[in-house]
Amino acid sequence: MIITSRFFNRSELIGFIALAAVLFVILPLSLDVFRLNLVAKYLTYAFVAIGLVLCWGYGGILSLGQGVFFGLGGYCMAMFLKLEASSVENTKIQSTPGIPDFMDWNQITSLPLFWQPFHSLTFTIAAIILVPGLFALIIGTAMFKRRVGGTYFAIITQAVAAILTILIVGQQGYTGGINGMTDLRTLRGWDIRPDHAKIILYFFEVFLLFVCIGIAQFIRLTKLGRILVAMREQEDRVRFSGYSVANFKIFAFCMAAIFAAIGGAMFALNVGFMSPSFVGIVPSIEMVIYTAVGGRMSIFGAVWGSLLVNFAKTSLSESFPQLWLFGLGALFIAVVLAFPNGLSGIWADYVQPRIDRLLASRKSKAGAWADNSVADGAPAE
Amino acid sequence: MFGEYSIGDLGSIFVMQGFAGLILFSVYVLMALGLAIIFGQMGVINMAHGEFMILGAYVTWMTSNTFQHYLPSLFSGYFFLAMLLAFLASGALGMLVEWALIRHLYKRPLDTLLATWGLSLILQQTYRSVFGPREVGVELPQWMLGSLKVTDSIEVPINGVFVMGLTVLITIVVAYVLYKSRWGRQVRAVVQNRIMAGAVGINTEKVDRYTFGLGCGIAGIAGSAFTMIGSTGPTSGQLYIVDTFLVVVFGGAASLLGTIASAFSISQTQSTLEFFMSGSMAKVLTLLAVVGILMLRPQGLFALKVRK
Predict the structure, then answer these.
(1) Under a CB-based contact definition with an 8 Å cutoff, are residues B209 and B94 in contact?
(2) N or C end of chain B: which has fewer CB within 10 A?
(3) Residues 6+ apart with CB under 8 A from A242
(4) What does the pLDDT look like over B226-244, one tens digit per residue?
(5) How far is residue A213 from each of residues A51, A217, A259, measured CA to CA in Å?
(6) Mean pLDDT within A14-33
(7) In the beta sheet, which residues pair with residue B157?
(8) How far is residue A345's CA from residue A302's CA, in Å, rounded to a whole number?
(9) Helix, strand and coil in chain B, % to nearest 5
């Protein structure tokens, strides 16, 4: 395999341009604001899916608790927005003005201590990165240092997702309970609800998405990415070569957590609320399927997977609500049994060779030899 | 916290809460037994286990309805037939699933997790389409209603006692089958060394299929028992699946004794805590304790020493 020193090889460059064209130009021009806002919602899951590509596709660590980090990021953002929406003049009618409405409903009379710092936007942005990052660090250190991995890790992350959901639902006065935090209005005085704000938020989100794609691609291309793959295939051999396997796993898990948290924060901004239904076991597993459909080894595939699965979910559950669960279930089984590399695998196996052949035949007529770029890193399992 | 109760009251409270915990323990054990067989012996994560249990519950419900309509004279004994049917239905479905799905994925445990999750979604929707989205309750025969008065302040419900007795019986049968019968020896041989077991003439594929079927069948019995203490809906199974996995992992996979011990400690902790705080906090604290202990001791309570 030829390892190119360039940031993108040719087929990745095409993928990059295609995705950028669709997200920056085609979708904003062709969709109305409501649909564009839906796309923005789908794209928040793409952040999670990119994180899972690093952590699951490359590192071989299947986390079924990404909803936890998505939720932590989202709740950090929502707490800031909620505080701003519950200013004293907005909440005059409450028995205690100046605190979020759900606290008032639950007979809480003063803002709890852990809510206080979320008056500051700087703190909130730092918290969106740091809270999930540190949480992932703690879980990762505890698990990977003791060489817990594979299915055990998946079950424990799932339990963590269950715990956090029960906690959020149970502590209604502090978290808004099952309804979550609704009625988020402004960001530093800038109204996030009207159409033009939605469009600006969409472009900001796509920009952030490409930053994350860039970071993920950078990790993938450096030695770090190679070590992650090596670890997935032959963990012991990497360990015997003197690498600290646990530290690399912790790093991949933390990166995935941070990506998920950014997605969660963008979710709160774009959709205007945050609730425990995006935290628990079911959403966490659905996030894995976005990655699996897109192709667990492909960063761009993860974005396409999130878009397509969510699009299918919206349109199917609008028209045939019973069919959707059958479809989703069948998708899980089909992706695992028939297409373990997802859409990007299908692309690399069937479409890419034809394009290459087409280009090669043209080039050979001109007397040049074909660039035999190999589709990168399809897992052998 | 204890101020307002007298010593005698507290004693009764602990006994009653303890008994409520024992019923939870029975359900955990019945579900976890099947899961421990599948996960511990085969390394397969069956996320659809809860749905196999619910299948058993629906079979029981249908049997009870049939008896009510056509054989009211035999109604008091329907439960034993229902349990058998639940075992057969869930076991047969399990063997079918093993043949169609699981056997292709033995080398990719994480992928079985996703595939069986997909299966659980399909089964849930099937239940919803066939039996309707509402929860259904089984009518219990007369002799199971009511409660036994042990002392003046302590009462235990009869159906709870029955479920517990059933649990003990099934546990003994499973332990006997796994450790004493010829087939159990074959299962354990395949677990310890698949290639060698195949070389001495054990049909490993057949053993896998029957193991998976047995695990799912026990889940069906668990569902059957579950109908006596709660009502059944299409998504009831999902509520228990994470708890049950924690029970199995906490006990140390592949160890029946560990599964029972962990089911006991988890259910007792939870039901005792439930008396002092809200149900959700009790559950959070219990699960946190389990996850915390698992972080310190990842191999679980009773670990089988296996050379990797």
Answers:
(1) no
(2) C
(3) none
(4) 888 778 888 888 878 888 8
(5) 9, 6, 10
(6) 87
(7) B147
(8) 12
(9) 75, 5, 20
Query: Cβ contacts (< 8 Å) between A285 and chain B: which residues?
Result: 114, 117
**Beta strand A190-191 pairing with B155-157:** unpaired
Please give the pLDDT value at position A370.
41
Please give, rounded to a whole number of angstroms, the shortest distance from the CA of A149 to a CA of chain B: 10
Angstrom CA distances, B215 to A38, A153, B39, B95, stand at 43, 23, 9, 10
Q: What is the pLDDT of residue B153?
A: 66
User: Residue A8, Cβ neighbours under 10 Å: how many?
Assistant: 14
A169 and chain B in contact, CB less than 8 A: yes
ipTM of the complex: 0.83
Indicate if the pLDDT at residue A380 is higher than 60.
no
CA atoms lying within 13 Å on the CB side of residue A327? 16
Confidence of residue B3 (pLDDT cuts 50, 70, 90): low
A:B CB pairs within 8 Å: 115
Q: Is A340 on the interface with B (CB under 8 A)?
A: yes
B1 in contact with chain A, both atoms CB, cutoff 8 A = no
Q: Which helix (H) or strand (E) holds A191?
A: strand A190-191
Q: Please indicate if any CB of chain A lies within 8 Å of the CB of B194.
A: no
Q: Which two tokens stand for residue B162?
A: 């029955």
Which residues 226-245 of B are in CB contact (within 8 Å) with A? Answer: 238, 242, 245
Q: Is A379 on the interface with B (CB under 8 A)?
A: no
Q: What is the pLDDT of residues B19-59, one digit of tens each?
A: 777 877 888 888 888 888 888 777 788 889 999 999 999 99
Alpha-carbon gap, residue A119 to B76, rounded angstroms: 65
Picking from B104, B118, B242, the nearest residue to A158 by CB comes out as: B242
Chain B partners within 8 Å of A64 (Cβ): 113
Q: Tell me how many degrees the CA angle A19-A23-A29 measures, rounded to the nearest 5.
A: 135
Question: Which chain B residues in 66-105 lie under 8 Å from chain A, judged by CB atoms?
Answer: 101, 104-105
- For residue B141, pLDDT over 70 is answered with yes
What is the reported pTM? Answer: 0.86
Which of A159, A163, A360 has the alpha carbon at shortest distance from A276?
Answer: A163
